UniProtKB/TrEMBL annotation:
Annotated keywords: Cell membrane, Membrane, Transmembrane, Transmembrane helix
Keyword Acyltransferase tagged: no
Location in or out of the cell: Cell membrane
GO cellular component, one term: plasma membrane
Organism for this UniProt entry: Alkalibaculum bacchi
Record's protein name: Uncharacterized membrane-anchored protein YitT (DUF2179 family)
């Protein structure tokens, strides 16, 4: 009973999250992209271009373009895109045409591309985080990859989005529209990553030193951080050497550097950005 309740609650939360993401995307289109004639890639971007010449609703056009791809994808690739993606596609189309009637917020093309891209990235990121998609070019990219294996799905996505941007620039006979559309796509992709991976203030240290044991002890004692010892070998010297791995918060970076410097000024240290850290001392799995 408890497991079923948790499963149903999780499923309802997923659909709620996908719904919120779709509504945020609809605001991006209705308040920024459509008034500014910006095509942010994808079938919805292509639908926005068609809308300006035919006045045909964007949501319905997106649906008309996406549904055949869903059918073909299920036949060729299986039902891996699932019910959540189908729901996301339908609900986004309803939101943009009927449910979310947000007003135009600016006449400035730059502001429209930036804030529209931010909202679009947040919306898509939320949808992805809850296990859905809005179909469209995700499906087309997967289908193209099915036939042309040498080109990755992400590359196909870039190709399709570039074609949509080019169509918008040619259709509107305005190079600025195409350029701002590219800016929107970039902002959108960055925000998607932030939503999915989170904003992390953590750094990873890789430390190679002859005094690795003493350095590890000081880190654990002074910073109360765990340290992992990896086994390495120098290709030139052919000597075995311990490699210390330690993940710390941004505020602890200078403290860790001071520890290493005080023990071995000649230590070889690699400092890397970490998108997300899950586990003791950081955060739990969502």
């Amino acid at each position: 009973m408890t497991n079923n309740f948790k499963r149903i609650s999780k499923l309802l939360l997923d659909y709620f999250g996908i719904s919120i993401g779709c509504m945020i995307m609809a605001v991006a289109f209705n308040s920024f992209f459509v008034p500014a004639r910006i095509a942010p890639g994808g079938f919805s971007g292509l639908a926005a271009v068609i809308y300006h010449f035919t006045n045909f609703p964007i949501g319905i056009t997106t649906l008309v373009l996406t549904i055949p791809l869903f059918i073909i994808s299920i036949k060729l690739l299986g039902a891996k895109f699932g019910a959540k993606s189908f729901y996301g596609t339908i609900f986004f189309s309803l939101c943009i045409d009927f449910i979310v009637k947000s007003p135009q917020l600016t006449d400035d093309l730059f502001l429209s591309s930036v804030f529209g891209g931010i909202l679009l990235g947040i919306g898509i990121g939320i949808i992805f985080r809850f296990g859905g998609t809005t179909g469209g070019t995700d499906l087309l990219a997967a289908l193209m990859h099915h036939y042309f294996r040498t080109i990755s799905v992400s590359t196909w996505l870039l190709i399709v989005d570039s074609i949509v941007v080019a169509i918008a620039g040619i259709a509107f006979q305005d190079i600025e529209v195409a350029l701002y559309s590219i800016l929107t796509i970039y902002i959108n992709m960055r925000l998607m990553d932030v939503i999915q991976e989170g904003i992390s203030n953590t750094k990873a240290f890789y430390i190679i030193s002859k005094n690795s044991t003493e350095i590890a002890y000081r880190i654990m004692k002074d910073l109360d951080r765990g340290v992992t010892t990896l086994r390495g070998k120098g290709a030139y010297t052919n000597e075995d050497r311990d490699v210390l791995l330690c993940v710390v918060n941004r505020a602890e970076v200078f403290q860790l550097k001071d520890i290493v410097r005080s023990i071995d000024p000649n230590a070889f240290v690699i400092l890397a950005d970490v998108h997300e850290v899950i586990g003791e001392g950081f955060k739990n799995i969502d």
